[in-house]
Design a protein that fits this description.
- By secondary structure, this protein is of the alpha+beta class.
- It has one domain: Pnp Oxidase, Chain A (Roll), CATH 2.30.110.
- The chain has helices spanning about 10-20, 60-70, 110-125, 135; strands at about 25-30, 35-40, 40-45, 50-55, 70-85, 95-105, 140-155.
- It has a seven-stranded antiparallel sheet with strand order 2-1-5-6-7-4-3.
């Protein structure tokens, strides 16, 4: 990381960023160009690793790309605000906190894993618990990403 002065290593602070953000940007391989899609998400920490869950239609480009190459990148940001540079354009900036992770995506297997992922997604997005049943899972797929490496940084004035 070039700006090591902004690096965040404290796990609680990283968890705070992940909890505050509401949109995850999922980066996929798409031939010659990357393909990035913003998604709502839920998460858990399992065996010391972040595991993200996102929902999707049952077919489409995103799922096709995951099946071709499950290696993905995720990016989340929170606490974004502009920093004025006054009359000096080069002094403008922004405050932020961000997390970037690399891992492997797969389509959730079985109804119970879909229910778990959807419950986590709803909890993260709304702060509420919902009952999710098998019928609710029938029209969606759930993408699960296990993060293998992660970095976080922030600029706060």
């Amino acid at each position: 990381m070039r700006r090591s002065d902004r690096e965040i290593k404290d796990k609680e602070k990283i968890l705070e960023i992940v909890s505050k953000a509401k949109v995850l940007h999922l980066g996929l391989f798409d031939g010659k160009y990357p393909y990035v899609v913003p998604l709502h998400y839920g998460f858990e920490i399992k065996d010391g690793k972040f595991v993200f869950y996102m929902h999707s239609a049952t077919e489409g480009h995103k799922l096709d790309l995951i099946k071709e190459n499950p290696n993905v990148c995720v990016e989340l940001e929170s606490d974004v605000s502009a920093v004025s540079g006054g009359e000096i354009p080069c002094k403008y900036s922004s405050n932020y906190a961000s997390v970037i992770g690399r891992g492997e995506a797969r389509i959730a297997e079985g109804v119970q894993e879909k229910i778990k992922g959807l419950k986590l997604l709803m909890s993260n997005q709304t702060g509420r618990s919902f009952e999710i049943d098998e019928k609710m899972t029938s029209g969606v797929e759930v993408i699960k990403v296990v993060i293998e490496s992660l970095t976080a940084k922030a600029r706060q004035q």
